Amino acid sequence: MQADSFAGMFDRNADQWARQEPMILSDFTARPIVLQELAPVTGKHVLDMGCGEGYVARLVAQAGAESVFGIDISSEMVGRAQQAAASGAPCPMTFESGNATNFQDFPREQFDRVIAVFMVSYLTCAEMTTVFRTLRSHLAPGGRFIFTVPHPFLPYIRPLEKPVYFDSKGRDYFAGVDESYEGCIWRRDGKAVPVSYMHKTFADYFNALAAAGFQTLPKIIELKVSEEHLALDRAFFEGAVGYPLQVLFRIDVQ
Ligand SMILES: C[S@@+](CC[C@H](N)C(=O)[O-])C[C@H]1O[C@@H](n2cnc3c(N)ncnc32)[C@H](O)[C@@H]1O
Known about the structure:
Blueprint: H1 2-12, H2 14-17, H3 25-29, H4 31-38, E1 45-49, H5 55-62, E2 67-72, H6 75-86, E3 93-97, E4 111-117, H7 125-137, E5 139-150, H8 154-157, E6 164-167, E7 180-186, E8 192-198, H9 202-211, E9 219-223, H10 227-237, E10 246-252
Parallel strand pairs: 1-2, 1-4, 2-3, 4-5
Antiparallel strand pairs: 5-10, 6-7, 7-8, 9-10
Helix pairs in contact: 7-9
Bound molecules: S-adenosylmethionine.
């Protein structure tokens, strides 16, 4: 049921997400680092779980991927991803609607790279483990899995202010696990985009990776506002300076 309401939220806000250039706070603080950690992608087959309207998928294709396959639970987001790819893509790009928790219909048996950019945020801990297990089974030897999530401390240390927040509504760090925290993330043009986040502790991510059979330690990057961001647009970024905004997990398999 929760998945239906998240799909509805993204269906309703698909136009706010559709973009051809960096616009949302995380387009600056997180997605460029995903691309950086994903490299090299030349010649790689990439699976983008929770691809949205295809913003990251398009960047991956432009970076030289051999193919990109995206799945998203929101049919409105998938429609926009398909439309953008139809008007010219540097490699085969396929997008389909589906829930990550039961999506089995992959065009390939194995992928060299798997990404889930702010999608795991919409899963419970049990669902996350299921999805991690599926994704691991489709990673080629020597493959890499990268996912990003809101920093689990953010709802506890940040006021409900732009350019990003999540509201714990008084639920504590442990009691709030698997509860949905509503929030907002801002675009540089001043628009606020509604987001949600199924709260998890830091340990929950490690435990899910282990339960799914990943055997190597992830590389962790706590994502933040940098000097470059401030030089670009101080007014937009300065409210988030010093906060751990998001976390990137990168897992390289043998
Ligand atoms: C914050 S958006 C990020 C979209 C895209 N990854 C990006 O970085 O632009 C999260 C996406 O996850 C999708 N999503 C949420 N729950 C999902 C699920 N259970 N299965 C597949 N997609 C899901 C939403 O529809 C939404 O498009």
